[in-house]
Amino acid sequence: MGENNIVVSYLPLIVMVAVGFVFGLSNVFLAEILGSRRNKTNVKLDTYECGMEPVKTARERFSVKFYLVAMLFIVFDIEIVFMYPWAVKFRELGEIGLVAMLLFMALLFAGFVYVYKKGALTWD
Amino acid sequence: MNLQSVPLEYYLTLSAILFVIGAVGVLTRRNAIIIFMSIELMLNAVNLTLVAFSQFFGDPGGQIFVFFVMAVAAAEAAVGLAIVLALFRNKQTVYVDEVNIMKW
Amino acid sequence: MLQDFLNSAPIPLLSALATLVMLLDAMKRDGARIVFGFSVFSLTAAMAAAIYTMFLPDKTTAFNNMITCGGYGAYFDIVFCLGGVLTLLAARPFLLASNTEHGEFYSLILFSICGMFLIAHSNNLLTLFIGIEVMSVSFYILSGYLRTSRFSIEASLKYFLLGAFITGFLVYGMALIYGSAGALGYNEIYQAVQGETGARFPMILLLGMGLLIIGLSFKSAIFPFHQWAPDVYQGAPTIVTAFMSTAGKAAAFSAFIPILAVLTPESSSPVAAKIGMLLAVLSAATMLVGNISAVVQKNIKRMLAYSSVAHAGYMMMGLAAGSVRGASGIVFYVTAYMFMQIGAFILISALERGSEERYQNLEDYAGLAKKHPVMAALMSVFMLSLTGIPPFAGFFGKYYLFTAAIESGYTWLTIIAVISSVISVYFYIGLIVAMYFRESDVQEQDSRPGLAGISLVISAAGVIILGVIPQFIDKIAKSLF
């Protein structure tokens, strides 16, 4: 029973992998069969970049300001992990939980004010 | 659906392997940013251990610990990137073997 | 809830004030003077709060046993605040001289002290972890504070990469201890380790303890995890080194004492004996390596860095002893070490005056007694105390630790400690000899220490007072356990 159980419990995964393979492969072949053979213009053969025209190489140096934004994003973004469990247990935690979370948000806000006042969010 | 039947040892072994991969990465790589990525891998391996034990004991303490490890890793990432940036402005390099003015 | 805040007053108070300092710095452009004043005030307030909580009944805890209050933690709070105030007073003239005074410096010092508070008060692996990280991340930034200096940024990068690497080991150790004991709180771990439940995964527990000891050894620069210390202490701004090498080390030991007490509950058990032996060997290796490496150094900051490694070795003796005497010996030594080491580094920072070239090498100190007689005298006091010459604090620090080690049966360790102290005479007294008996033809500009003078006088006074009436602090230290 034990071994059998593990196979059974993984069955959905196996099915999903199989369906994924079939779907992916069939798309490749169906496009070849059903797709129009004409209109192979330069535009159509170009790299697809969300509808933008690719103008130059992507491997170039970009402004260090992106770095700063990315660093700030990491720091402020990760704080959501503390809010998530609180939100799940909101009722059980009651007032003390609310006060604690407000305190936490206030501290975060202080950090935000610091970042803003230091001009880290102005682009130029 | 009974995916919880994966035994504790599997998780522990997997996380130990990940941890060792991270540690080897730190010791063998020379690019500061890749070293830092390896450190992140080590921390995440630890997170896996914590979550596995937490599940095993049915005690949420381990998962809460994981939140804090993640938050600390984020803070370290921000500080670390800033340091690497300052290093690059100074020496035009991110390779740690070129950062060697202090030796005995 | 309110009672919890009152009992743990220094931590929330300083955290709030440190945040305010940060905001004040952001609000006021060119207001570094105000930020400085407010920071000193914050530390004084936190110290007052720590003294207020000092006399709480034993084993008071707060916030669901996450932290302990009063006694032990409060004593360390006072030590950290004292170190912080001494550093801040000396930092202002130092930063002004190199034209790099920003409010961030002060708020970072305050934040790192918040982390140290948490370390000293921790009663849960989680609070310990957060405290260590708050302190370390602040230190990473502080050691790279002079970001245009090649030395500073190199120190910062090395400290950061190695520190983060070791954090991985530290937190893995914590995870394994959690896995073995089934809880993160010290009290629960203590019970689990003592009872039969601890035997659930004895190997995992042992591995976890090993990794945790590695992590804390790195933070306190114990051999073989001391390699970062000379580079970081040399490269970081001198004033930051003064703070890191004293308060940072004190914080690491304040974590070591309770965690070892929790993990080795019965001092007669075979595991405890093994751990004690391991710590004794590490201690012996640390002081020998530190002192022997210091002998060959040419750079004074590097020499003091290696000497600080050696002093970590002396403090480790108290851990190896595993007795109340050992623990109280560490508490005394941390206090004495705070004054003498911070004094020596602040003196260097005052002589440097914003240049990274001046007074870096030991030769530069030749003939200092003629140029700056007061500075030379103060430096001699610190050096004599670091050596462990009787009328000064360092002597009694060593005395308490050595007797604790002998009482616990580590006579060989004490012999090694005495030998390595003798080695250390060479470079400590060598510096004094150079200052008083050698000539130098380098012309000297005016070098008034300014506010750093206050720090220096307090440090020297501390060294002498602790040396004259050691019983006072020793009594307090014993009452903490």
Question: What's the gist of this structure?
Answer:
The complex is a heterotrimer of chains A (124), B (104) and C (481). By secondary structure, chain B is mainly alpha-helical. Chain B has helices spanning 8-28, 32-57, 61-91.
What would you call the structural class of chain A?
mainly alpha
Number of helices of chain C: 20
Query: Helical content of chain C, roughly?
Result: over 70%
- Rg of chain A to the nearest angstrom? 26 Å
Biggest sheet layout of chain A: none
Beta-strand share of residues of chain A: under 5%
Report the count of strand segments of chain A.
0
Specify the helix fraction band of chain A: over 70%
Q: What's the pLDDT, averaged over the residues of chain C?
A: 87
Strand content of chain C: under 5%
Question: Which term fits the overall shape of chain C?
Answer: globular
Low-pLDDT runs of 5+ residues of chain A are none
> For the record, what CATH class of chain A applies?
Mainly Alpha
- The dominant shape of chain A is flat
Number of domains of chain A: 1
- Can you write the helix and strand succession of chain A as a string? HHHHH
In which order are the strands of the major sheet of chain C placed?
1-2
User: Would you tell me the structural class of the helices and strands of chain C?
Assistant: mainly alpha
Distance between the termini of chain C: 26 Å
In N-to-C order, the SSE pattern of chain C is HHHEEHHHHHHHHHHHHHHHHH
How many E strands of chain C?
A: 2
Structure overview:
The complex is a heterotrimer of chains A (124), B (104) and C (481). By secondary structure, chain A is mainly α. Chain A contains five helices and no strands. Helices cover 71% and strands 0% of the residues of chain A. The model of chain B has no long low-confidence stretch (mean pLDDT 87). Chain B is elongated. Chain B is an all-alpha fold. Chain C is an all-alpha fold and 481 residues long. In chain C, strand 1 (61-62) and strand 2 form a beta hairpin. Classes of the chains: A mainly alpha (124), B mainly alpha (104), C mainly alpha (481). Chains in contact: A-B, A-C, B-C. Chains B and C meet through helix 1, helix 2 and helix 3 of B and helix 6, helix 7 and helix 10 of C.
